[in-house]
Amino acid sequence: MPLYAFSLFLPTIISQLGYSSTRANLLSVPPYAAAAILTVLIGWIADRTRQRGLCNILVSFLGIAGFAMQLGSKAASVKYAGTFLGALGIYPCIANTITWASNNAEGTYKRGVTLGFVIGFGNLNGVVSSNIYRARDKPGYKLGHGVVMAYLILFLLIGSISTHLALRGENRKRLAGKRDNRIVGLSEKDIDALGDKRPDFIYTL
User: Which end of the chain is more exposed for a tag (fewer CB within 10 A), N or C?
Assistant: First the structure.
């Protein structure tokens, strides 16, 4: 939802800072460029550390800070800086979260269904994003910024922390042999069919 909200209304937000529509569109480019660079960097780091949850957690603070600046300041320069942090806090987490879900679902069908749910639920939230930046709320757009910030805190930050801790706990149990009972009496073929339920499958954190 923050992705759709940011994409749909960034030029509108910038135009409310006193810039013309043409200049507002041009000023919307640098935040996207910065977000593209950070998205690639976070992907590179997460691939090598296998700490996708921690990457989400750290990056989410940028987005929260950016929308806090939108809500708390009336200065155009501060609000524009907030759009940079907002983009940096949203875009890298989209690619990282989809990959995180893919890493932790083994088996072609299970991975396909899992990603379908993740991406489908994200797309459904486009309905929310298209209704929170209302014309009557300009120029501050308190409702829109507040809802986006709530999503970033509740679902991105707290959701990533909860998932990271749950997966770390499960990995500890597997490494301690507490899931070995799942493969007792099974053939190699049946064990392979367990996918990410296998005791030797370690989740990406």
Answer: C
The model's pLDDT over 144-164, given as tens digits with 9 standing for 90+, comes to 999 999 999 999 999 999 999
Instruction: For 55-110, write each residue's pLDDT tens digit.
Output: 999 999 999 999 999 999 888 888 889 999 999 999 999 999 999 999 999 988 99
Residue 46 contacts residue 58 (beta carbons within 8 Å): no
> In the chain, count of helices (H) and strands (E)?
10, 0
Q: For residue 112, what is the domain's CATH number? A: 1.20.1250.20
Closest CA to 203 of 166, 179, 178, 171: 171
- The one-character DSSP state at 198 is S
Please report, in angstroms and rounded to a whole number, the separation of the first and last CA atoms in the chain.
23
Amino acid at 80: Y
Q: What span, in angstroms and rounded, lies between the C-alpha atoms of 4 and 122?
A: 9
38 occurs within a structural domain: yes
Among 180, 156, 183, 195, smallest CA distance to 61 is for 156
